[in-house]
Write a structure and sequence with these properties.
Elements: H1 2-16, H2 30-39, H3 41-67, H4 73-87, H5 89-98, H6 103-129, H7 142-164, H8 175-186, H9 188-192
Length: 202
């Protein structure tokens, strides 16, 4: 868990390095600096979305780790593969940031996030199936399954949007947190629940 926390924190830092200030030509002025910032708006949007995605992934993984009694070799292998795709995010985010109006960069980034979400969901179901869950339930653990499935669906939506409106495909990743927030407001019991809210796979 400590290794994963460190890796994700480093990746969050690396992603912002994809935003490089272009060389200014001509006389320096406040308007020139403002124009530079405006020209970088798409890169900032990609950075914001990527940061939100990484924060969601980090939060989800932390909850899974807190809920586990122990690891086995298969779970370790799943986490290593998951980390491989996590460490690919700075590249895929930079690729997207530089060419966000095209299909392939969007598709590459969204498939990268889809694989991460899929592996996370598989890991959680594996934990349930083989009873790696702690005896004492942790508050709000019923949201783990909901969040993982919802996030996976949003990655699929982002992939579909890559073909229709590439520039806006990554905005799909902002919806899981919005939906969960609204659901908690509508149903306060969801936020305060201490029940597991999941079933073992037969």
């Amino acid at each position: 868990s400590t290794l994963i926390d460190g890796v994700v924190a480093i990746i969050m830092t690396l992603v912002v390095l994809s935003i490089q200030v272009p060389e200014l030509k001509g006389a320096l002025s406040n308007q020139a600096f403002l124009n530079v910032l405006i020209s970088l708006k798409d890169k900032f949007i990609v950075y914001l979305v990527t940061f939100v995605v990484l924060a969601s992934i980090w939060n989800s993984n932390a909850k899974q780790m807190n809920y586990m009694k122990f690891f086995d070799k298969k779970m370790f292998a799943l986490k290593i593969i998951w980390l491989f795709f996590i460490t690919l995010i700075p590249f895929s985010a930079t690729f997207l940031s530089n060419h966000n109006q095209y299909l392939i960069p969007n598709l590459f980034f969204n498939i990268n996030i889809f694989v991460i979400a899929l592996l996370s969901t598989i890991s959680w179901q594996y934990i349930i199936k083989f009873d790696f869950i702690k005896e004492k339930p942790i508050k709000n653990t019923d949201l783990i399954s909901i969040r993982s499935i919802l996030f996976l669906l949003c990655t699929m939506a982002a992939i579909a949007l890559s073909f229709i409106a590439p520039r806006f495909s990554t905005l799909a990743y902002l919806f899981p947190n919005i939906i969960i927030f609204i659901a908690k407001k509508i149903n306060p019991n969801l936020a305060n629940s201490t029940k597991l809210g999941i079933r073992k796979i037969p």
